[in-house]
Amino acid sequence: MSDAKVDLTKDHHAIKDDLAARRYFAKFERITRILGHVAQEMEMDRALSSSDAGILMGYFNAIAGSFKALSMKYLVSGRVVGPARRHLTIDLHESGFPIYQELVSMANDAAQAHQHLAGMASADELRDQMVRQIVGAREIPTDLQYAMSQRLYYEALAHDPQRLFWAQMHPVALPGPEMGERRRFVIHWAIYDTQLNVPVVYIMELEDSGRRALPRDEGRWERVKAHLMAQSVGGLKLITIGKGFDTDFDDLHPKRLRRIHLGPMYSNAFTLQTGPIREVLDEAKAPVGEDWALAWTVEELESTRVEMEKGWFSATEREVFDLDPLGARAAETGATRMSRAIILPQRPFQVLAEKDPAGFRDVRKFVVGAHERVMVYG
């Protein structure tokens, strides 16, 4: 195997046209809204628990908030002259999302948002200046428009940063369903995958046999958070993450772990794709706003029983995780099960249904119809 590093920047593309950037953000505004409808459908047919659906809704809203903030950042920046001239950079191959560095830069901006706002004119002052330049000087106030867009950007970052999606979304513990005498918790966290450039959400259900409830046991909780973030790497199998957690924390017992990949997003207008999805989008010739498809992959790992591991003076519970014995790729995926879905508007779905490519037959289809009504096939 070659030791040469893969140049991931070859798939990066700067959207230099302002109108194209606006269409891009409008597309994602709709997609993130539709994701909520998809979660509701999955909850209704019990593919998601109400707890999981609620957790995902929070992340969808956070993703929407981050896209809204980025849309302000780049609203006029392509028209200004000099170093301030900037363009949104996306991963156009097997992602369709902004590159990881965009979220890192946004986090750096958020750390100084209040400082920026303190040194800027108010929104009302900027509007007055724009009116005077338009009416008096009869000029397009590009620089003032840029200043306004940056103010709105920093306001979005400063207003409620906890409601935005960042490169790392640290673990949160929620009370889990009561079963037996032990405390149960649902822990969720998320990352923006540095290799795939897509949001990835993790949800873990566990039992706590410790003396103090996990969120109130500061030392243990901090170790748990650090452990989970360190293990949140796309290349790691769920079985590796689950066993590693089970081994490192004798009084915490992971019963179920889910990993949800929200992406890639495919669109002929913004991304490069290969295989059947390219043919589907090409032949659909869907209008602006309808030319897209979003992949959604769920990996699940479940514990089926407990074995006692004997030590020098005591025995420790160890989880035995189930790898699907009927799944030909169980050892490869390292999960109990894996399911794939695709969300797409009606016209691309019609082409997909007509072509019926083999690789999509076991993929669940969420079809967006009129008034954003979601219909489920497969």
First-last Cα distance: 40 Å
| Overall average pLDDT | 91
Could you give the order of the helices and strands?
EHHEHHHHEEEHHEHEEHEHEE
Name the beta content range. Answer: 25-35%
Secondary structural class: alpha+beta
Output the radius of gyration. Answer: 23 Å
What would you call the shape?
globular
Instruction: Profile the largest sheet.
Output: 9 strands, mixed
The number of helices is 11
Total strands: 11
The domain count comes to 2
Helix proportion range? 25-40%
User: Which segments are poorly predicted (pLDDT under 50) over 5 or more consecutive residues?
Assistant: none
Polypeptide structure, described:
With 378 residues, the protein is α+β, with helices and mostly antiparallel strands. The protein folds into two domains: 12-163, no CATH class; 168-377, no CATH class. It has helices spanning 18-44, 50-73, 100-111, 113-118, 123-135, 142-159, 218-231, 238-248, 276-284, 330-333, 346-355; strands at 12-15, 88-91, 168-175, 183-192, 199-208, 252-266, 293-310, 315-322, 337-345, 364-368, 374-377. Strands 3, 4, 5, 6, 7, 8, 9, 10 and 11 form a nine-stranded mixed β-sheet that branches. The longest helix has 27 residues, at 18-44. The two termini are 40 Å apart. The relative contact order is 0.11. The mean pLDDT is 91.
